[in-house]
Amino acid sequence: MVCLGNICRSPLAAAVLSHRSHEISQPKILVSSSGTSRYHVGESAHELSIHTWREAGYTYEHTARAFSTQSFEDQDLILTMDLTNRAMVLNAAQSDEQRAKVFLLRQFDPALSHIDPTSREAEQLQVPDPWGEEIDSYYRVREMIERAVTGLMTQLRPA
Q1: Read out DSSP for 19-44?
Q2: Domain of residue 58, residue span
Q3: Residue 159, in any domain of the structure
Q4: N or C: which end of the chain has fewer CB within 10 A?
Q5: Does residue 54 fall inside a structural domain?
Q6: What is the pLDDT of residues 47-70, one digit of tens each?
């Protein structure tokens, strides 16, 4: 999971996916998150993100870290929260194989999966940054993430 500062969206998404990962035994899902900036490296997640995932019953520990190109080697999927962070991650990729691992998280939302991430409609695939906003924004972000994770889990389940 990748966002800008790695304190709001991506740790919240990681908390949701980490919790849901136990629903399937294969493939084994290991979750991490990072940010394309170094603004908050070493910090905990934003208090409203933590509140939002705990209120939903998710348990997750987080320390912000910066995105590293090593993720292309270590991860099978790199799920970004918005178009800017997607572009930054894609720009860091050094091969088509690495670029093929990068998706917007909401591409897995069944209601949005028809949207091409390179089209004008791709803005609908973004998870908005709730930083600096009230708790309701965090709840909306969690709902978006939960729908996308549900779609992802459906695709990852063995047939």
Answers
A1: HHGGG-SSS------EESS-TTTTPP
A2: 2-153
A3: no
A4: C
A5: yes
A6: 999 999 999 999 999 999 999 999
